[in-house]
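User: Need the bound-state model for adenine:
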Amino acid sequence: MRIDLLSLFPEYFRGPLDESMLRIAREKGLIDVRFVDIRDFAEDKHRRVDDRPYGGGPGMVMMPGPVAKALDAVRGEGSYVIHLTPQGERLTPSLCKEFALKEHLIFLCGHYEGIDERALGERVDKEVSIGDYVLTNGCLAALVVLDASIRYLPGVLGHEEAALQDSFEQGIFDYPQYTRPEVFEGKEVPLVLRSGNHAEIAQWRRQQALKKTALVRPDLKERR
Ligand code: ADE
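Assistant: Bound-state model below.
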């Protein structure tokens, strides 16, 4: 899958993309990630990309010209443009699965107070929010969407069913996990997990997951 990250701070992505699963996915050639600096598409000699909002208000707005040019330079047949914004559709596992099927994802990361509306319109396929809070820019949100989506690409996790077994796939939390040692700070690993009885283990895990979901996220249980 080809991935283009359009932003004013391409260096922002380096750390997360150079570690762990994202690094391995890149090394295996499962994803081909490129970084596009929107400032390279600025239209004046000062390389200016933002200006004050019409109608007043605080902060700066990204000008439409550089954003439109950057998008048009990377967009092609098979491209899917995701604009990260708090005014977007809330990210869900089903959206992530949908994104994982695309051949080319373009993440458009806004900064400051956002992007001039005229650069967006038919150039954007989906506006996505990662939650009801406002980040200082869209780069972190793009990383979240990218990370959560590529887990559904075959070969990324190594064990194919892992992503489908995760929390939220069944609309509830994950069950609690334990590993060695058998006793830690006086607390033992629950006996059932050491029983070897797979049916009992599955039942126990489900009960634990339901209990915690009801306690912490009753809304999830209701939605289910
Ligand atoms: N940009 C700023 N805040 C955001 C959010 N919550 N989701 C997506 N993009 C954002």
